[in-house]
Amino acid sequence: MAKDSVVSVRELIARRKPGFSLEAPFYTSPEIFRMDMEAIFGRHWIYVGVEPDVAEEGDAMVVNIGNSSVIIVRDDEGAVRAYHNVCRHRGARMIPEGKTIIGNIVCPYHSWTYGLDGGLKFAEHMTPDFDRGCHGLKPVHLRSVGGLLFICLAEDAPDDIDAMAEIMEPYLAPHDIRNTRVAHQADLIENGNWKLVMENNRECYHCGPNHPELTIPLFAYGFGFAPESLDEEGRREAERYNQLSESSRAKWEAAGLPSREVEHLSDRVTGFRTERLPIDRAGESQTMDTRAACRIPLGTIGDMAAGGLSFWTQPNSWHHFMGDHIVTFSAIPIDEGHTLVRTRWLVNKDAVEGVDYDLTRLTEVWNATNQQDADLVAIGQQGAMDPAYEPGPYSPHTEGLVEKFVNWYLDRLSHNVK
Questions:
Q1: Residue 67 sits in a domain of what CATH number?
Q2: Residue 197 zone, left/alpha/beta (φ > 0; ψ -120 to 50; rest)
Q3: Residue range 164-183, pLDDT digits in tens
Q4: pLDDT value at position 6?
Q5: Segments of 235-367 assigned E as strands
C-alpha cells in the first residue's frame, strides 16, 4: 500500500478490470479491511438474525460487528429494539456476545440499570441534578423484513430497505418466520476475507466437484452454465432443469407462492436478489433424500414440494426457505483473513426434536457444505497472499453474481472513501 492509503485504494478501484477478480490488497490489507468495516459494515443494513432469536419479552441477543457491539432485545411491549452495548456511565460493555434472558440491562461495572426501552432507571451516587433522561442507551437502527432482522450502525440508515421490504415480504410471508423457532445454530470461523466468503457464495461454478451433498437437492444450473461446454448428458439435465423450473413456477404462483426472479444486487444501496428454485427428485427440501426434514410445514405452505426460495442481500447474507424449514446465513468479518459464518436452521415453532424432525437429518447437507466452502475460501485466501497472485477472469456464464457483488462493493466503497 502506498503511504496515502486513500489515494491507493482509489487507484485500485479505478484500475479494476471488469469481469476480473479484485487485486490482492482487497483481500489481505488491514487498511482496506478497516475501510470495509467503516464504509460497508458501518453504513449499510447488516443481516444479524431472526425474530425467533428474541421470541419472548426479555429475550436478548448480542451481536458484535468489528468494534461495535449491539444488544437486540424484545421489550415489555413485544417490540424488538436494538441498542449499542455501551454503558452511558464510563462506556463498559454490559452483556457478552450471545443470547440471554433479562429483566433489565444492568452494567456489571457500577450497576447502572436500563429498562428494555433503553431508558436509564437506576444510577446510584449521582448528584441531585443528574438527569437520567439524558443518559439512556444509544439506539441502533433495526428493521425486521418479514421476520429477518437487519441493523445499521450509521447515524442515517439507507432508506431503500423499505423498497426491499415491500418486494420481499410477500415472498417471505408464506414461510411465516415469526412463527418458527431456531432448531440449531452453528458458528464457523472461515480462514478468509469476508469478500472471498461472499464471492464463493455467489456462484455454483465450484459446486459439482466440491458439494456432493448439496448437489443432490440443488441444481447447479440454477446459477448459470455455458451450453457449449456441456456434453450430451449435461444438455439433457439442463433442459430438464429448465422445464422443471417453468412448470414449478407456474404451479407455485397459482398456489400463492411468489417465485419470479427479482434482482437488484448492484443497482441499489441495499442490494438484494430473490428467486424460488426447484429442488430435484422429491422436490421438498435440501436434505440428502430431498424429502422434508420436518413433518410440520411452515406457515401457509400446503404442498411440501414448494422448492427453495433463495434470498441474497448485500453485503453479508444468503437464505433458503423451504416448505418444512429455513436455513439462514450471515457473514461477519473478524479481521482481513477471518470471517464468522453463522448458520441457523428454523422449523415450525410447534415442532419437537426427535418427534417431528431429526436434527442430524435437518442439518447434514449444510453442515457438510459449510465446511467444504470454508476449505475453498481458505485456499483462496492463501492464493491471494501469494506474490504470484494476479486477478483472474470470471466466467460470464457462471460467475455473473460474483461480478455483481464486486461491482456493488466497489461502488459503495468508492462512495465512502474520503
A1: 2.102.10.10
A2: alpha
A3: 999 999 999 999 999 999 99
A4: 53
A5: 262-264, 272-277, 308-313, 317-321, 326-335, 338-348
